[in-house]
Write a structure and sequence with these properties.
- The structure is a single chain.
- The radius of gyration is 16 Å and the shape is globular.
- It is 74% helix and 3% strand.
- The protein contains four helices and two strands, in the order H-H-H-E-E-H.
- The protein has one domain.
- It has helices at residues 7-37, 42-65, 70-96, 117-140, and strands at residues 110-111, 115-116.
- Strand 1 (110-111) and strand 2 form a beta hairpin.
- With 143 residues, the chain is mainly α.
- It has a two-stranded antiparallel sheet.
Length: 143
């Protein structure tokens, strides 16, 4: 994004970069849900944004380590991060506020109806896309 003069400008620039990544992930996930489920909820913008932000940064850190099995590590980290954030979001929107945004209670391997094993595996795969998109945004938009 350009050169800065001072610590305050550096912090503002970093905030803008993270906000752009968060917003990109949130909007992308919101519309992905609409495509596949036919509807979504605004809480998915919030949760999806944080998932995209954390998975993208964690995945890039793993990628830059140039370690063996980096794809498996990225997928495992993605599954863990997204499932954790989905669980916390579910506790808030579905249990605390009773908004009934989703319910996995009929899916085998679920935890309190908020997360389930099949989606955890899907999040691992989706995480690879998040890392790729984060890299592209950082490389071609934020530099």
């Amino acid at each position: 994004m350009g050169k800065n003069n001072g610590l305050g400008s550096d912090i503002l620039e970093k905030f803008q970069q993270y906000f752009l990544l968060w917003l990109t992930g949130g909007i992308a996930y919101f519309y992905l849900e609409i495509m596949f489920r036919g509807y979504s909820h605004y809480s998915m913008i919030i949760c999806g944004g944080f998932c995209f932000l954390f998975v993208g940064q964690t995945g890039l850190d793993i990628l830059y380590e140039k370690s063996r099995f980096y794809i498996v590590k990225i997928m495992a980290a993605s599954a863990l991060i997204i499932t954790t954030l989905e669980f916390v979001t579910g506790l808030i929107v579905n249990i605390m506020f009773d908004l009934k945004v989703w319910d996995y209670s009929r899916v085998k391997g679920n935890l309190m109806g908020q997360v389930c094993l099949p989606y955890t595996l899907l999040w691992g795969v989706l995480g690879l896309l998040c890392v790729y998109m984060t890299y592209m945004i950082q490389r071609f938009i934020l530099e």
